[in-house]
Predict the 3D structure of the following.
Amino acid sequence: MKKNFEMSDLGLLAYYIGIEVTQKGGEISIKQTGYANNILSDTRMLDCNDAKIPVEPGLKLTKVTEERYVDTTEYRSIIVLLTTQRPDLIGLLSRFMQEPQEQHMKAIKQVLRYIKGTKDYGITYGHEGGNRIQGYSDSSYGVNTQEGKRATGIVFYFGNSPISWSTQKQGTIALSSCDSEFIAATTTATQALCG
C-alpha cells in the first residue's frame, strides 16, 4: 500500500475509541480502564467502595412503588455513560428512564461500584483453543419484572476467545424455568445459524 498511497506507519494499535489495546506474544488484549475511570469521575464515584457483583442478588426492580423519584436528567446521563461498559445491565436499568426512583438509582450506583472493582479486567484473544466455535446460553427466570418477561444471555467463543455476546429480553412470557431455558437455547441456535 505504501507504494500506491502516501501513508505513515504509526506502529501497533494501542488505543481506539476508549479501548486500550496491548499486542504481544501472539495475543491481543483489550480493556477500558481509562474510560471506566472517566465514568467514575463524571459520576463522582471515583472514591466509592468497589463491588464484585453488578447487581444485588434477588434484586427486583419495578416501575410502580411508593418510593421517591430521583433526578431524571442525572439518571439518564449515567445510563448514556454506561452504555459501552455494561450494555446488558443498562438494557435492564434503561427501562426506568421515564420515572426513575431511589431503587433504580441505587441499582445504578451498584453497577458503578462493580465497574470500579473490575475496571482493569479485559478480554485476551490468542491462538489457543483451535478454530472451534462454541456457544452458550442462559436465562434469568428467577429475575422478576412487572412484564413477566425474562432475559436471555448468549456468548460465543472462537477457541478460547469470546467473539460475540448479547443479553436481551425474551419475546415470550415463560411459564416455567424450563420454558425460559428453551427460549434461550432456541435464540442461541438461531443466532448461530443466522450469524
Remarks:
- Residues 2 and 10 are 13 Å apart (CA to CA).
